[in-house]
Amino acid sequence: MTAVAAVAVLGGGLAINAWINRGPETKVYEGPVAGYPLLVGSDGRTLTLSIGWGCEKRPELVVRESADAVKVSLRHTVAPGFCDPGGYGQITTHLNKPLGTRAMHDATGKPAVHFDERDLRRPAFLPENYYPYPAGRMAQVPGLAPLPTDTPAWAIGYTLGTEPDVHGSLIISQIRRSSTPPDGRAATVKGHPATITQDGNGSPRSLTWSDGTYTFVVTTGAPPRLSDEELIRVAESLG
Fold it and tell me: Whose CA is closest to 114, among 40, 177, 62?
């Protein structure tokens, strides 16, 4: 299942927090969802956005529907006084009826780029003691580049252990774009050429490949990191 160089899913940036005076009145305004990964659930009604924010309350997703279109925007609420800490996570709202063939646009009138959960591949194999990220959390691994937001993309995450006793992460990113795997150790996933990369001892290890339609990246955070063999086994089990 965003995004901030340190966020995998993720996409969209975590706003810079600063202790600044924000004025004497609460400000509420709506802005575009462009720049953040957006998911349309398999029910066609659930919309989920991966987002980071600062100096405001947790933003809200707002939708306005008609017979042939859906407009989705972000509602920001900035309270008076000093900056609150902000945060990052996944925010969700629901349409009155499934999106279907209706066009979806953001607050600027441009198409709202989104990933369809029905196309999301999930692993049949997970190493022992790996569990899905808690609901509302953004799947993240420090050092992993954010998801692109100009094409449908999404990431799902798993943790080694459960909070508060978490020891590592596994992130699976899926991008609707064919690409050539980066330089690295050669591997094969379902007959497709793949590479395994890791830059330095403190960085994540990633397995990247493309099936001609999607580019997949399976990344292990550290420590401990999954072995090359475990990464390949997770990748081979996606379906």
Answer: 40
Give the SS3 label for residue 118.
helix
Instruction: Count CA atoms within 13 Å of residue 138 on its CB side.
Output: 30
Query: Quick check: is 58 in a domain?
Result: yes
66 and 31, same domain (yes or no)? yes
Note the pLDDT of residue 209.
Answer: 97
pLDDT of residue 93: 97
Smallest CA-to-CA distance from 89 within 167, 164, 14 is with 14
158, 218 Cβ separation under 8 angstroms: no
Q: What are phi and psi of 115, to 5 degrees?
A: -105, 140
The pTM of the full predicted model, rounded to 2 decimals, is: 0.86
Residue 221 counted as domain residue: yes
Give how far Cα 157 sits from Cα of 19, 93, 140, 204, 223, Å: 32, 21, 7, 14, 16
Q: For the sheet containing 87-94, what is the strand order? A: 87-94, 46-53, 38-40, 115-116
Cis peptide before 85, with omega less than 30 degrees from 0? no
